[in-house]
Amino acid sequence: MEPKYKRILLKLSGESLMGHQGYGIDPERLNEYASQIAEIVKQGVEVGIVIGGGNIFRGLQGASKGFNRVKGDQMGMLATTINSLALSSALEAIGQKAKVFTAINMHPIGEHYSSHRAIEALENGSVAIMAGGTGNPFFTTDTGAALRGIEIAADAMFKGTRIDGVYTADPEKDPTATKFDKISYDEVLARGLRVMDLTATALCKENGLPIVVFDMDTVGNLKKVIAGEPIGTFVY
Predict the structure, then answer these.
(1) Which of 40, 63, 164, 201 has a Cα-to-Cα distance from 182 of 20 to 30 A?
(2) C-beta of residue 234 within 8 angstroms of C-beta of residue 182
(3) HEC profile for the chain?
(4) How far is the C-alpha of 187 from the C-alpha of 94, rounded, in Å?
């Protein structure tokens, strides 16, 4: 099927990279992600990526254990950079060009992020992996993904998670939870649904960036959702 989108921002969860391990990066999951991403790039889709760092370190959890919040968030930014390097390495191993951009200057680990350089990379057929969140503490990688999606003028943000969409409640805890095929930003905010944090949702709403929430851990789903198959939830 032909892709419905020309340029996307793919938000991946750090937790998903753990695969069946309790921590770190599962090489099998990493390679599954890389091959799914390379497949849609071959179809002509320009892909920007933001990955969380929860498989390595979460600033908020660190703060609850006594870490200084600013330093904890900075540790989280470094965790996202480790994941970004791993994904770029997995993509390059299968012949897909990839470039890591970092929100704070980390030469030579990655190029200091600018939207101009990221768009240039996308137009040249590279996957642009944008690490380090927004570069500031107190902002999540969801907010970082919303910001980057807007900056690179993506058609939509695709939030790949373990769950296949947005539900009335957490389906892992509540068996009566029902899934939405479509839901407005306003309803997400009014119902207090944890699609993303409030800042990220508000940013997407203000800038008209639709969000598609889908299950990235099922191989083949990325290609389906890019073709417009209704397997996730469309937030508009």
Answers:
(1) 40
(2) yes
(3) CCCCCCEEEEEECHHHHCCCCCCCCCHHHHHHHHHHHHHHHHCCCEEEEEECCCCCCCHHHHHHCCCCHHHHHHHHHHHHHHHHHHHHHHHHHCCCCEEEEECCCCCCCCEECCHHHHHHHHHCCCEEEEECCCCCCCCCHHHHHHHHHHHCCCCEEEEEECCCCEECCCCCCCCCCCEECEECHHHHHHHCCCCCCHHHHHHHHHHCCCEEEEECCCCCHHHHHHCCCCCCEEEC
(4) 41
Query: Which one is predicted more confidently, 9 or 21?
Result: 9
Q: Is the omega angle on the peptide bond into residue 210 within 30 degrees of 0, that is, cis?
A: no
The half-sphere exposure of 235 on its side-chain side, counting CA atoms within 13 A, is 28
Q: Does the pLDDT value for residue 7 go beyond 90? A: yes
Alpha-carbon span 203 to 26, nearest angstrom: 32
Question: Mean pLDDT over residues 17-44, rounded?
Answer: 96
Q: What is the pLDDT of residues 153-178, one digit of tens each?
A: 999 999 999 899 999 998 889 999 99
Written as six digits, the tokens of 65 are: 């254990």
Cα(217)–Cα(236) distance, rounded to whole angstroms?
A: 23
pLDDT of residue 59 exceeding 80: no
Output phi, psi for 160, to 5 deg. -85, 120
Model confidence pLDDT, tens digit, residues 82-137: 999 999 999 999 999 999 999 999 999 999 999 999 999 999 999 999 999 999 99
